[in-house]
Amino acid sequence: MLFLLMLLVGTTPADTVQLTLNKAIDYGLKHNPEIQQLQIDAKKIGLKVNDAIAAYYPSLSMGGYFAYLSDVPVLDFGGTPIPMGQHENYSVSISLNQVLFAWGKLYDAYKIAGIQSEIAELKLKRKEQEIRYAITDVFYGLLVLEKMVHVSKKSLSELEKHKEAVVKRYRAGLVPQYEVLRSGSQTANMKQQLIKMENAQNLSKEGFKLLLGMDLDLEFTIKGALETREETYDIDELTNEAMNNRIELRNMKNFERIAEIARDIARKIILPAIVAGATYERKKPFSFGGDDWGSNLTFNVGFQFNIFSGFKTRYQYEQALLILREAELANENLTKAIQVEVKQAFLNLGAAKEGITAAGENVDLAEKAFSIIEKRYSNGLVSNLEYLDTQLSQIQAETGYLSALKNYYSARAALYKAIGKTSYEGQDD
């Protein structure tokens, strides 16, 4: 991966990077925009854990004011005027407050923050798995498209040569004109197919750049082999592996844990919290009738108790119970959905393997048939129509085999995604 990153840093838009499957996955895991966004989200949620820890610490605040009284009341005490204050008043204070006991509500909030952070990390991990499978799927799709473009170019070249041969035979009076027209039509159709294949290849490359998070001006080539692997799977083992590996199930359990803690918090809301505090104040005037600075220190211990809030606490508790039940049902439904997903992926992979076998046999038969027709046509024993039909069958057989390979790799990636495997076996190095 280090080699790839050094190579990408040193490239210009005109350079071309060669990607194997492993290098493409490494690059995508580092630069994919969805992964980068979830990484930021995970860090943001991780900060909430620190925020919950901060509730354990005392709060320290500072305040102050200046007040000017234009008219100070005066008390006449036995003929002696006594001012009831001063024109200029100053005060500076520092207050310290600490929750001493809250029935575990602070700890519950800390646990929720920790679980939320774990959920975010697991979501990131699952997204990395999904990107890995998506890159694998598109990578092999590009390999198949390259082969299809190659087959189309080869077929077009053969059709053009055949067209030239038909034209020569027509000029020699050996075939009618409609065979020349038919050969030209077949060649034109193949040109259109080649254009579509090349356009699909270019579009897939641009989509692959977006998936990898690659600069759109950067060009790349891919290197890999299209081959099947001898693999035997058991549906029960796959299902058990999915139950153990799927991150969604682990996160659903985390949601249940949060709902249970939220229920406990709702139950504890009615309980009083014991708090303590201290305040240091320095002010002027400090004493009644004086004009000097002075200070005092006050300590206090008390409790906060919510006597009545319009049955809000009761509703919050009932809501927490419903949320918990909702999470339990969601977990049950998700478990069933994953089991169905694994079974579908298993069946699709089996069908894809059978499709490759059938498509391979079809290619062998089509090649043999075309070889026979080609010899017979050169000897004038079959018509141009038979020749073109047989050649078209061969082209379709080759294209069908490549499509079957693409289905196989897509089905294999879908199975790995369904069972939640982190690594993808058989990656090209």
Can you summarize this structure?
The chain is built from nine helices and eight strands. The protein is an alpha+beta fold and 429 residues long. The model is unreliable at 1-14 (pLDDT under 50).
List the helices and strands and how they pair.
Elements: H1 2-9, E1 16-19, H2 21-31, H3 33-54, E2 59-68, E3 74-77, E4 80-83, E5 88-101, H4 105-171, H5 177-212, E6 219-222, H6 235-245, H7 247-268, E7 273-284, E8 294-304, H8 312-378, H9 384-419
Textual characterization of the structure:
This protein has 429 residues and is of the alpha+beta class. It has a single domain (2-31, 102-270, 306-419), classed as Outer membrane efflux proteins (OEP). It has nine helices and eight strands. The protein has helices spanning 2-9, 21-31, 33-54, 105-171, 177-212, 235-245, 247-268, 312-378, 384-419; strands at residues 16-19, 59-68, 74-77, 80-83, 88-101, 219-222, 273-284, 294-304. The chain has a four-stranded antiparallel beta sheet with strand order 2-5-7-8, with no helix packed on it. The protein has a two-stranded parallel ribbon with strand order 1-6. Strands 3-4 form a two-stranded antiparallel sheet. Strand 3 (74-77) and strand 4 (80-83) form a beta hairpin. Helix 4 (105-171) packs antiparallel against helix 7, helix 4 (105-171) runs antiparallel to helix 9 and helix 8 (312-378) runs antiparallel to helix 9 (384-419). The protein starts with a helix and ends in a 10-residue tail after the last helix.
